Amino acid sequence: MPGAYAPFPLTFDRRVSVQMEPIAEGLMVRKAGEDLLDELREAGADATACYQCGRCSAGCPVAEFFDLKPMQVVRLCCYGREDLLIKSRTVWLCASCETCTTRCPNDIDIARVMDVLRSRALRKGQSGTEPKVVAFHKAFLGSIRNHGRVFEIGMLTSYMLRTGDLFSRVGLGLEMFKRGKIKLLPERIKGSGEVRAMFRRKQK
Ligand code: SF4
Ligand code: SF4
Fold it and tell me: Does 8 map to a domain?
């Protein structure tokens, strides 16, 4: 039945015990979070189809570092608790590997759920609980935008400047350089103009 959720306590992770509201209150909260559910549906991830089977959580290779399991993330979306989700580590640590997505029997694209939550938070000016992850994403995307592919030294410099962590990886960088894994100058690739145009279109 669309819009009806079982009053399911989210107590699967010993480190986190998010007690959900009873169904009537849950439905009220859901109404407040309707725009999140709509954006998720548009992105191909209908969170309301989840019946909490747990297959997504069981297969996630990063789950041991999460404070909310993927199934809890999906359930909290249904309850409109974006506030809790943005404050969790899970949304920011998710590696977008899509294992959860491929395991979901209801075709819920859980990796996309994480993307949408991150994107909404950044649009609202919130950087979440893992600013280094956000810094890495920005440095990575900046490198792709400028060169059409990753230019490792440029990306790492951008990451270090964003995080203020200027020295901890210098040794590793030198070692990689000695082994020919990173180059001093960026390589030009065919189609880098198209890549830049793609970024410009997305920023409009
Ligand atoms: S695998 Fe799909 S249906 Fe099962 S708990 Fe995860 S999101 Fe819900
Ligand atoms: S996409 Fe994220 S939540 Fe899903 S299995 Fe991979 S790391 Fe876990």
Answer: no
